[in-house]
Amino acid sequence: MGEAGTVFILAAGESTRFLSAGPKVLQPVCGRPLLGYVLEQARSLQPRRIVCVVGHQAERVCETFADWQDVEFVTQEERLGTGHALRVAHDACQASHDGIQGPAVVLYGDMPLIRSESLLALLARLSEARASVLTARVSEPRGFGRVLREAGGEFMGIVEEREATAEQLDIDEVNLGVYAFRSEDLAEFLPKLNNQNQKGEYYLTDVLGMLCRRGQRVSAEILEDEREAIGINTLEHLSDARRAIQERILLGHMAGGVFIEDPASTYIDHGVEIGAGTKILPCTVIRKGVKIGRNCEVGPFTHLRAGTVLDDGVEVGNFTEAKNARVGSGTKAKHLTYLGDVEIGPGTNIGAGTIVANYDGVNKHKTTIGKDAFVGSGSILIAPNSVGDRALTGAGAVVTRNSNVPAGEAWVGVPARSLGKRPPTTEKAKSSGSAKKKPGGIT
Ligand code: UD1
Ligand code: MG
Questions:
Q1: CA nearest ligand 1 atom 12, residue
Q2: Which residues of the chain have pLDDT under 70?
Q3: Which atom of ligand 1 has the smallest separation from the CA of 53?
């Protein structure tokens, strides 16, 4: 009984309690839609099938996860409650050629923090109980169903907050909406659910009570880590979940050898790659898809956006924003700079206040900067453009579009014009590492 046959994910709901439209499960959390975290939980069990119930704006949800080819989507046309949602999915599954085999695990699409270890433990308990459910003791029950136990501690059912008596409301053990069932029990009990309750919905939780009344043992294990119990019904919950997921992401990078000076002011999305030995300094935001090599320094106050790739040893610092920027190894852009749609070779210095102006008001254009180049402070490079290898721009140069500064030349002024070959002194200054002789340079 240790392996999941089918994992069902209930994700048809709307975010009505957010007072905003759209499917709750598409709300972004650290750069990834909420449901992505839950689908990953499902995958971690390596089940035979993953079946996700969608409803509100079902097409949008399916489109968002179109490349998760191992996930089957079933539409719940009318949202009549969690019990109804599971019944729709269960019936669809049973009718399909694969049918349902082995135990079923049920996850709710708004519980992104459940760990796969907890799910494995939940499944393992099917060897000693008819069904199992995850619960947690919490300081703030956030509208969750309360767990009812007999005097001896045996699980006997769940009461929803709306239905709970004042005494039951004081119970601090809540239902996390994560269950393992035998599929024959779902086939038997789901059709027996009714909607005679405050919400007029078919509550999946009632299946557990029915099993208990039948004399079957339901195992309800209390999770140790309360943070796994963060479920999202309101915008406040969404920000709690974001904080907890962010913490996990940062701890993951630290385990991979990334130094993060101040986790409290560091925001790194899901799906960012960072090499060992890299330092992330305070007040830094790194968005999804960014790749950072080894031994780089990022921050303080840096914003790295989609499509940005930093090779090994790159330094980007104070008030530098990069979008779709590919930066070669050892290149530095340390102060007050915007790098938009640009490719920069290795060993180049981007002076303070440089702007790569990628947008002409209608379209975005690309800029290329070669290796060992020197872009002087306050330069504006108007795209499309290029600055060749070892070329230099003077402080305040405005390099108008399509100027294409040739390799090894120095360009200065507004609009920037060629002074001919870059003076050897500036190249020498660069190679000797002396900061003082660089024209317009601040290091
Ligand atoms: C549910 C549980 C509650 C538990 C809590 C944990 C029931 C009756 N209550 O309450 O005991 O403490 O989760 O988070 O199960 N959904 C559908 N179709 C529907 C209704 C809901 O797919 O018709 C989905 C929602 O998208 C959501 C999940 O099921 O992902 C749970 O629904 P929600 O309305 O959030 O239930 P809770 O009130 O949180
Ligand atoms: Mg919920």
A1: 144
A2: 1-2, 425-443
A3: 22
Q: Relative to the CA of 158, which ligand 1 atom is closest?
A: 11
Q: Mutual orientation of helices 205-213 and 82-95 as an angle, nearest 10°?
A: 80
Q: If one looks up domain 235-432 in CATH, what number appears?
A: 2.160.10.10
Residue-level pLDDT at 26: 94
CA of 138 to the centre of ligand 1 (A): 18
> How far apart (Å, rounded) are the C-alpha atoms in residues 419 and 413?
10
- Separation of CA 84 and ligand 1 centre (Å): 11
Strands 32-33 and 28-29 come out as antiparallel
Residue range 43-71, pLDDT digits in tens: 999 999 999 999 999 999 999 999 999 99
The per-residue b/e assignment along 425-437, b for 16 or more CB within 10 angstroms, e otherwise, is ebbebbeeeeeee
CA dihedral 146, 151, 152, 157 (to 10 degrees): -30
Query: How many CB atoms are closer than 10 A to CB 184?
Result: 9
Q: How far apart are CA 141 and CA 125, in angstroms?
A: 25
- The CATH code of the domain at 6-229 is 3.90.550.10
Q: Give residue-wise pLDDT tens across range 213-240.
A: 999 999 999 999 989 999 999 999 999 9
The answer to whether the 6-229 and 235-432 domains have the same CATH topology is no
SS3 362: coil
Pick the closest to residue 230 from 100, 140, 127, 360 (CA basis): 140
- pLDDT score recorded for residue 434: 45
Distance of alpha carbon 363 from its chain centroid, rounded?
Answer: 29
Parse the chain into domains and list their residue ranges.
Answer: 6-229, 235-432
